[in-house]
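Service request form, structural biology core

Requester: graduate student, group of Dr. S.
Request type: structure prediction, single chain
Budget code: on file
Notes: please return the result as structure tokens.

Sequence provided:
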Amino acid sequence: MAGVNPLTGEVDDTEYVPGTDTALVPLNLSAMSEEELLALFPSPVQAAGALMHARDVARRAPAALDTYRRKLKAAERDLKIAVALGAEKLLETYPRMPMTERRDLAHATDDRVKAAQLAADTAWLEMEYARDFDRMIGRDIDILRSLNANLRGEHR
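Core staff response, request fulfilled:
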């Protein structure tokens, strides 16, 4: 991992971040002019545009969340059906085995159950990512509102 010079804030080396194809870019704030530092901040028009875009994305979030929720429910239903069919199939081979153990065995041996479990796990992850994205957009809107209010005051 790259080291950071505590005096200047400059990154000492340009190693790659593990798990990504992104190189760290040295940023020496102390060597930047006032104009260069100001260029790092958005203009009032950029901040307003970003706020409008974030609000537009937030308006679409409930429909997207509903789509992922329906997909998750369908995957969970398919998993229950696959487990039931797998347990029923095992009943022929193991007639005295309790249902709980047959279900557990179906999870471990039946390909339909494994595929249904993978689909349910994937749908759950997609739902969680969608929820996180929705929360992130909400936080972004709060930040952009604050930024917008501050920029309006400074540019009067």
